[in-house]
Design goal:
By secondary structure, the chain is an alpha/beta fold. It has a single domain, classed as 3-Layer(aba) Sandwich (Rossmann fold), CATH 3.40.50.10490. A hairpin with a 5-residue loop joins β1 and β2. α2 crosses α5 and α3 runs parallel beside α5.
Length: about 200
């Protein structure tokens, strides 16, 4: 793996702990695991993370911002989701997702979308089920303990860490704007990682 192939420098990936998984390893996620540490934590393969994030950015860029919905029930992702949605103009759903929002036009909360991005398939299972019912492609950030049911594109990463999620959304926002011709190069993207990251508790 060379730095040229990476969306951000290797040190940036490692610094936010994007590769640090859990002690539980699902059968599907084994293909993304590089090794298991002595303390039992699985470590994700950074090269495979980078590959999937790159695939994701190209895929998401095929959609107009108003057709993209980002959903997350985990509080550790709220700032990143809000910032991403604000920058590209996507829809967002944070907190508890009421079933039927994507499927029942009679609901006041009814929302139409053509692409769904979720931060964790387990707490976000309700919105995934609805998206699957109406045939919306689903991208999910998956840790070593996640299953891939109904997921069209799995992006392996530490989906528990605030800074880890912030980095994935930061990269996605930057690459989306580049692919849409809104900015020309990386240095034109002015938001910094801290704009996407919740402050760590002391």
């Amino acid at each position: 793996m060379t730095e040229q192939n990476l969306l951000v420098p290797l040190d940036t990936y490692l610094k936010v702990g994007l590769h640090i998984g859990t002690k539980y390893r699902s059968k599907y996620m084994e293909q993304f695991i590089y090794k298991v540490r002595q303390d039992g934590l699985a470590v994700l393969n950074v090269e495979k993370i980078n590959e999937r994030v790159s695939v994701m950015t190209k895929f998401v860029s095929q959609y107009n911002p108003e057709d993209i919905m980002v959903a997350s029930r985990r509080e550790n992702s709220y700032k990143a989701v809000n910032k991403f949605a604000e920058i590209i103009g996507a829809k967002k759903y944070i907190g508890r997702y009421p079933p039927g929002t994507l499927t029942n036009p009679n609901l006041k909360t009814f929302t139409e979308a053509k692409l769904l991005i979720v931060c964790d398939p387990w707490p976000d299972k309700n919105v995934i089920n609805d998206a699957y019912k109406v045939g919306i492609p689903i991208i999910a950030f998956c840790d070593t303990n996640n299953e891939s049911n109904y997921i069209d594109l799995v992006v392996p990463c530490n989906n528990k860490g605030k800074k880890s999620l912030a980095l994935v959304f930061w990269i996605l926002a930057r690459e989306y704007l580049k692919n849409k011709g809104k900015i020309e190069k990386d240095s034109d993207f002015k938001p910094v990682l801290d704009d996407f990251a919740e402050k760590e508790e002391e």
